[in-house]
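Exercise 3.2. Students should predict the tertiary structure of the chain below and write it as structure tokens, then compare their answer with the key that follows.

Predict this chain's 3D structure.
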Amino acid sequence: MTISTILLAILAVWSLNTGVYDFGGKSAFEVLGKVIQGDPGLALSDKYVVWDVRAARIIMAIFIGSMLSVSGTSLQGLFKNPLATGDLIGLTSGATLLAAIAIVLGGHFKEYLPETVQFSLVGISAFIGSFLSMMLVYRISTSGGTTNVVMMLLTGVAITAIGFSITGFLIYVSKDEQLRDLTFWNLGSLAAATWTKNIILGIVLIIAYIILLPKGKALNAMMLGEKDAQHLGINVERLKKQIIIIVALMVGSCVAFSGTIGFVGLIVPYILRLLFKSNYVFILPLSAVCGSILLLTADTFSRSIVAPSELPIGILTALMGGPIFIAILVKFKKSL
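Answer key:
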């Protein structure tokens, strides 16, 4: 845990200093120090690039990478399967769909909503979409307290297909500005990072982790089966509801601010399980840090590979996650 935290800090410094903007011989870290000290002689452009662009983006990458990783780890522990992640079972698709509906059709009914709801309509819609998708997947794939993995994956495929078709229709009827926003959701990007969004993500992260991170022992007990977990004193139904709601909240929040970033919740838990088997006491907190490391690394490369342009981060995570997904399928093909 200590090593991974130090690595994350090193990556954050590297990411802060990566970019095409010239600070006139100074490092971005030096400029950040002057911003924190409130140096009146600092150029506004330097302050904007370091604080409002790079630092805000780094924090968003840390928050979103961490939450996507923990959500995947929690779902895999709950369903006792390494393929149970938000994007593979339809949560991301459901969140993206309702966010797309809010973007394209929100103007028709926004004025009738309270002002606080208007401001966060896309975020609320994304949460509702991920929650409804999670409930639908759980209801269809679970029978007699046992979750059928094949049904879970097939339900996710169906939800993703429905979400893709409706989102495609919304793209067809959308205006130019709405079309740009929808493209942002589908490809995934952290370019729209702001400190206001980071505060919201930080609040969601703190609430989620207070509830989820102490669940390591309960998820270990779930690996034995629901009946054995109940005999060990675990309130299984309460645990399921807590994880479903919190994961929906995290995935919905991430999609609301960054669009579709896939495979983070698949890659990190898989690698950690190779190191720590299925001990969620270690995997849960480690996935929180390692997810941040993965997404921050991917984001730094995404804005430096084709600089000064930017490669959508969802493309990079899919390129990394695809081979690992195939490796998991090959390893578990008999049990699946």
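Discussion points: The chain has 15 helices and two strands. The two ends are 32 Å apart (CA to CA).
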